[in-house]
Design goal:
Elements (H helix, E strand, L loop, with lengths): L34 H5 L17 E3 L9 E5 L1 H6 L10 H6 L11 E3 L2 E4 L2 E5 L5 E7 L2 E6 L14 E2 H17 L5 E13 L3 E11 L5 H9 L3 H15 L10 H23 L1 E2 L21 E2 L23 H20 L2 H9 L1 H16 L10 H13 L4 H12 L5 H6 L5 H17 L20 H12 L4 H11 L29
Antiparallel strand pairs: 1-3, 2-9, 4-5, 6-7, 7-10, 8-10, 9-10, 11-12
The structure holds adenosine monophosphate (AMP) and magnesium ion (MG).
Length: about 525
């Protein structure tokens, strides 16, 4: 049975499973980690995914990294992990979280496949991510800790630049209340990593309940390994989607339904804050509906719905306004992968089609909140549609617009003028503000205008803010990074000590090019 993916306008035809070629590229076996050592007083439990068996991962140790040092850490993630006090001053933790021998761990790298830029890419896998174990029900993973059997001739490393971006983006998303993987800490090393030029290495310790991706399912489906596929789906349901077991339908169909719903909600939240992921390949799609794999992402400055943030995305497949369509397309790949288990083509397609109303509802809800309403209402759709049209037409700064409207709703002085100042045509802004006021007058039961300051952030991780923190970090000064991290942690508070975090981007921000190179 083949599910025909929905068409992506102006792009090559969507592939079907028939066109999929699994790269038969067996990875070299690495020596197993020393199990006896791992058993001795590890701060981590063996990851549950280990129970699935050897088809799902490779045992390996991280590659040591010379002279590591701490760069940043996040208390909130440390708390979630219930780490011992003082961990971030302890050399054993520094070494362990940089990939060096230290505390006993249970390291492994998982195998997955995926569609990249709409084309089946065959086997990929954790090419530079190594799972150390679990703690408090959360997986702890190093990104940039050296090659794995899935590195495909790449070096397994990550540079400081991209690691700072991943660390900060994880903070930013959590601050905004958008589901995401977390970043516990960032460590650096003087070791050279070659990209377009010589850079230095860094390691981000990432944390999530699970790092399983759509691509893990696609991997076993494409190889025709239905028993493994079922094992993976059963594992996911048992540990992460237990309610699917009590459903009146097949647990696999229920799983697809739940992932569809979560993915729709996630992408709606991205659209509501102007977040562009940049590489929405199926291997970067979390089965838990988390924002995953921060690479060439961007929070929009001036609102351009067709904005392409990834310099490598020459066709604009992952342009901002294409994200909902791409997530829908990616879900079809997941549906295709689960089809051997669900064994009902029409039911699978019907579940996939729930994406459209789920997305529309989630987006309306998110936009209603941005507009200062407790819930969506049909009367609000024209109001937010018109706002986005105005912002696009006049290339208005997305974050500043919503923040200034929020300040106005909270009764701030001169605030109507400050909204109008963002527009080339202030009259159009005034007309929209009249409609906004009228909507609040007409829907008093839903109106909670002062709440807008808790919904529309003062600070987002704009490219140039990240860039300033990166440049300072590259010269050994981690203070700007810490200051930005702290502002992103509480993005609804005005960063009084750092007013430039809320300013319009400088001219040079437009020249920043972010590509897949990281
Ligand atoms: P990404 O575009 O970051 O989602 O990565 C796609 C695939 O390439 C994944 O399998 C990654 O693990 C792998 N990959 C990316 N960068 C590296 C690297 N420097 N070394 C090894 N594998 C990498
Ligand atoms: Mg990835």
């Amino acid at each position: 049975m083949v599910i025909q993916n929905p068409a992506m306008p102006a792009l090559a035809d969507s592939p079907t499973i028939r066109a999929m070629l699994v790269a038969e590229n067996p990875a070299p076996a690495l020596a197993a980690a020393d199990a006896a050592q791992a058993a001795a007083a590890s701060p981590f439990a063996a990851p549950r995914i280990r129970q699935l068996g050897a088809a799902f991962f490779a045992d390996l140790n991280p590659t040591p990294l010379a002279a590591p040092h701490w760069i940043a850490h996040d208390h909130c993630t440390a708390q979630a992990l219930q780490l011992p006090a003082g961990w971030h001053q302890d050399d054993a933790w520094l070494q362990t979280l940089s990939g060096n021998p230290g505390l006993p761990v249970h390291p492994l790298a998982t195998v997955y496949s995926g569609h990249q830029f709409g084309v089946w890419a065959g086997q990929l896998g954790d090419g530079r991510a190594i799972l150390l174990g679990e703690r408090a029900g959360l997986e702890v993973q190093l990104k940039g800790a050296g090659p794995t059997p899935f590195s495909r001739r790449a070096d397994g490393r990550a540079v400081l630049r991209s690691s700072v971006r991943e660390f900060l983006a994880s903070q930013a998303m959590r601050g905004l209340g958008i589901p995401t993987t977390s970043a516990l800490c960032l460590t650096g090393s003087p070791s050279t990593v070659w990209r377009e030029q010589a850079e230095t290495a860094a390691v981000v310790t990432r944390v999530a309940p699970s790092f399983i991706r759509f691509g893990h399912f696609e991997h076993f489906a494409a190889k025709g390994e239905t028993a493994s596929l079922q094992q993976l789906a059963d594992f996911m349901v048992a540990h992460y989607y237990p309610t699917c077991l009590g459903a009146s339908e097949s647990p696999y169909l229920a799983l697809l339904r739940a992932v569809t719903q979560r993915s729709a909600e996630l992408v709606a939240l991205w659209q509501s804050v102007g977040f562009c992921h940049g590489v929405l390949n199926t291997d970067n799609m979390s089965i838990l509906g988390l924002t995953l794999d921060y690479g060439p992402f961007q929070f929009l400055d001036a609102f351009d719905p067709a904005h392409i943030c990834n310099h490598s995305d020459t066709q604009g497949r992952y342009a901002f306004n294409r994200q909902p369509g791409v997530v829908y397309w990616n879900l079809f790949c997941l549906g295709q992968a689960l089809l051997p288990l669900i064994d009902d083509h029409d039911a699978t397609v019907a579940v996939l089609e729930t994406f459209k109303p789920a997305y529309a509802q989630a987006f309306d809800r998110a936009m209603a909140r941005k507009l200062g309403f407790a819930a969506a209402d049909p009367a609000l759709t024209p109001l937010h549609t018109r706002a986005l049209e105005l912002l696009a037409g006049q290339r208005v700064d997305f974050t500043l617009f919503w923040r200034r409207v929020s300040q106005r709703a909270a009764g701030a002085e001169d605030s109507t003028q400050r909204v109008q100042d963002l527009f080339v045509d202030p009259g159009a802004a005034l007309a929209w503000l009249d409609d906004f006021d009228r909507a609040h007058a007409q829907l008093p039961a839903l109106s909670q205008a002062p709440q807008m300051l808790r919904t529309n952030p003062a600070v987002v991780l704009r490219n140039h803010l990240g860039e300033l923190a990166i440049r300072a970090a590259q010269s050994g000064d981690f203070t700007p990074l810490a200051q930005l991290q702290s502002a992103l942690d509480t993005p609804f508070d005005e960063p009084l000590a750092n007013p430039h975090f809320t300013a319009l981007p400088p001219d040079w921000a437009q020249g920043i090019e972010i590509s897949c190179s990281s």
